[in-house]
Write a structure and sequence with these properties.
The chain is of the alpha/beta class. It folds into two domains: about 90 residues, Elongation Factor Tu (Ef-tu), domain 3, CATH 2.40.30.10; about 150 residues, Rossmann fold (3-Layer(aba) Sandwich), CATH 3.40.50.80. About 25% of the residues lie in helices and about 30% in strands. It is globular and about 55 Å long. The relative contact order is 0.17. The structure holds flavin-adenine dinucleotide (FAD) and NADP nicotinamide-adenine-dinucleotide phosphate.
Amino acid sequence: MGAFTEETVIAVRHYTDRLFSFRVTRPQSFRFRSGEFVMIGLMVDGKPLLRAYSIASPSWDEELDFYSIKVPNGPLTSQLQHIEPGDTILMGKKSVGTLVLDALEPGKRLYLLSTGTGIAPFASVIRDPETYERFDQVILTHTCREVAELTYGKELVKTVREDPLVGEFVGDKLVYYPSVTREEFERKGRITQLMDDGVIYDELGIPPLNPETDRVMICGSMDMLESCKQRCEQAGLKEAPTPARPSMWSRSHLWAEPEQGLASLSGPFRLYPLP
Ligand SMILES: Cc1cc2nc3c(=O)[nH]c(=O)nc-3n(C[C@H](O)[C@H](O)[C@H](O)COP(=O)(O)OP(=O)(O)OC[C@H]3O[C@@H](n4cnc5c(N)ncnc54)[C@H](O)[C@@H]3O)c2cc1C
Ligand SMILES: NC(=O)c1ccc[n+]([C@@H]2O[C@H](COP(=O)([O-])OP(=O)(O)OC[C@H]3O[C@@H](n4cnc5c(N)ncnc54)[C@H](OP(=O)(O)O)[C@@H]3O)[C@@H](O)[C@H]2O)c1
């Protein structure tokens, strides 16, 4: 058990039959940068079963939040969705990831483009005061198939704005831009379509993506990453090199599924594929 620690579940909340979030204890020695991910899991049939999970809480928090899918017959999530306060989960000792502020060149506006559970790393980034020290405007977009799938993000943004500590940094810098693709909603369509049609820029009263001022982080399915990456490149943005890490780590730390655990690249925009 040397590669991971056992953490206690503090709270669990279910949003839909496909989505839930949970909070666990944080070991004092566990350090991470807002936006990174860690391996978490359970003992299944006497063996550790772990998957990559974005840490959805900021680096200053005393506990750790996660936001999860429930995949029917998913090896991990078919079990994980049943956790309750007091239960134990396994957690890796190292966090990694490229969706961190250090990877971005200075800019004025930060776009955080997410679909589905891809909002999880940004739940961390938007609660980090440093985000607002570095950028004048932070636009969090979240696109889901159904309205109910927006609940987590909607409540998160409200909490961030009302937080006595972080709220002061946030001010009016944080813009929440939700959309839905398969149900009626006040804003319909994929973020890519809303960008192509100029809807997002018109609605927010801002100029289109501009490499001089704008930086972008992206988190969603491979398909979504590719589509968003295309838009960024068309606008003249370039991928940034993977940021330097504060501590040494190697592929072998991602013992569960190394090829899954490694986020792909970043840039003025950065990518973070979900399987
Ligand atoms: C860097 C990284 C960070 C991740 N962060 C998160 C996170 O914060 N929250 C989270 O729920 N998952 C996250 N994932 C996915 C996670 O690692 C697992 O795949 C997921 O928990 C399902 O595990 P499973 O064993 O039940 O099914 P798996 O065998 O891992 O997946 C089965 C299938 O379910 C679908 N699937 C898996 N995860 C998702 C998802 N998140 N959204 C939609 N469909 C999915 C895919 O079609 C996949 O092929 C992340 C993956 C990577 C690589
Ligand atoms: N009830 C169910 O059983 C149920 C419901 C939903 C999903 N699922 C399963 O779960 C998996 C993941 O579903 P998910 O909803 O979390 O993720 P998803 O299929 O990636 O969809 C999330 C959001 O991203 C949008 N999107 C997809 N591809 C995009 C692209 N290339 N560019 C921009 N936006 C894009 C989707 O729009 P579109 O709607 O236009 O695709 C949707 O609004 C799916 O593969 C599916 O099999 C099951």
